[in-house]
Amino acid sequence: MKRIKSTLLIIALLQIFSFQLSAQKKFELNDMDKLYTLTDPQISPDGKSVLVVVSKPDTATNKNKSFIYKVDVESGAAQQLTFERTLVNYPRWSPSGNAIAFIAADVTAKAQIFLLSMNGGEAKKITNSLSGVTQFEWSPNGTAFAFVQQDEVPNKKMIEKGYDGFEIKYNSMFMNARPTPSHLWLIPTDSGEAKKLTSGNWTVPAGAPNSFSWSPDGKNIILQSNESPYSGELIFTIKTVDIATGKITRITSSQIAPDAMHKERQPLFSPDGKSIAYQLNLKNAGYAYDIFVASATGGNGMNVTAKLDRCFFRSVWSIDSKALFVAANDFNNVSLWMQPISGAAKKLHLNNISITGAYWYNYNVGKNNCIAMIASTPQSPQELYFMANPESAPKQLTNFHEEMKLVQLGKVETFSWKSDEFTPNGILTFPPDFDPAKKYPLVLEIHGGPRSTSKEFFNSSAQLKAAHEYIVFQPNYRGSDNMGYRFSESINGDAGEGPGRDVMKGLAELKKRKYIDTTKIAVTGWSYGGFMTTWLIGNYQGWKCAIAGAAVTDWLAQYSQNDVGSMSRFEVSKGISPFTDKKVKANWIKNSPITYVENVKTPTLILSNTGDERVPISQSYTYFRALQDNGKESKFIAFPITGHIPTDPIRTKEMNRYILDWLDKYLK
Length: 668
Hints:
By secondary structure, the protein is of the alpha+beta class. It contains eleven helices and 39 strands.
């Protein structure tokens, strides 16, 4: 008996020791395969359950496989509703709650609407779209779906014969055919013939969420109308469509200046049908949005979030139509406010969680103003949370990342500094076994956007670098959208110098900390972060190495070649074309990193996708060739895919592997 007890004790001690070892495991590249992505929470009409899309990397197929789960609010029990389907997304409850509809691929690989009864059985395909459904909404009485699909290509047979010339306007340099509009269609929920509701050489944005909304009485649909299908012609207006007659009426009457970038978007009918909420970019600015409310009968809207001074990318009506739940990047987090139509907003207490999403936040409002949201903390990846009402504390419902509790992550903190008239902030991520008595290399990881924010939430990229014994600094330079309109829009006409000073002054403050090895500092970034990387290495010295992903290096080329080139006119010259004013053109050249490439002394890794429409790979080719011609150590890795950044599991890991190997080569 003593021998048995002794053996059991040894086994128990070994288990404890094994758990302690596993708990000390640092975050590695292969751990990225364990990360789930949760999106699009949808509360049931009775408020008792939440639908959520759950995606996970599958390295066998090199795809991110998605499934729809139904999560019980009281118990947190999660029931998987879809299984071997592809392109699964956009789950929506029927008004009665007895069924859900969602988008998934059919046998032709086109995205269609499927209907699934909550009483069991197989999902039924509703649409037979030749181009694929991009979004849909139930009618208020549950008898029909409104959905968006791309129009068929006109004169297809003539085009196949070679008559395929097309007009170039503001669009991506990779476009190889005239852009085709997308429009609204109606189809009964019990199947039947689809009927086209809108038409014309304008488009309902296919990929944008909340681009249309039913009136509660089912008589009208309000939609976002992009006045041209060309991606760079950025005039968006809000219009209503009469279901019975097809008559289209613009809601607001605000004047649109010639050659403007006017964006009214994401329209939402209030539950009582009397009002419409929408976003509008302020003063024709590039990215600064407020939430406006207009009468459903027409007229210009009232800015209801003006006093909050944040950049809003999402709003959801309260159940009583008296307020809107609005979200925005806020200092070092994503905050959620309850904003009355008239009166002061109230910030909700989310404790230490941050709602996920970029330019669209993952939350939903249901019965009694309960709230479902996808959120994370610096030490835990995203999960589904629920608030019974705006006064309650968020309750975590899911535990998809239980396995990640065995991984030791680096601690995170926010610090602020002074730069000109601003007080920017930034996020620091420390190695998991950080010792303040030691010295560590520092890696700057600069966010893109530029209207975006580095926040205190789980960040796999920063944690990977921290696990390699680097301190990671993510600065929120001017242009970031976490400190109000003036801070965000001060980048206009000053794309490089002002943001560069912000970063360098933050870096100067960090260098005062004894645990920073000031001889080993690297700078990295993607998109606008890549631009900032190439700007900094051309205008400042002292970098051990640099990594520039999808970097804008020549603003003149970027303006004329990318898919939304007109937006560059706000970042670089406050809306003025560089080809209409010599001084403006000189400023574009002044703000281009290629102008300073001869100054670069930093070993530089360049990364890009060959089919990137947002920052064409030509930007990277030019910079790489200039570095090579000047004898500067550089390496250029391209991924043969479309999109602005690799998103499939294998290339995502490979991208991070190239980055870590480059850092280790120069910082170890």
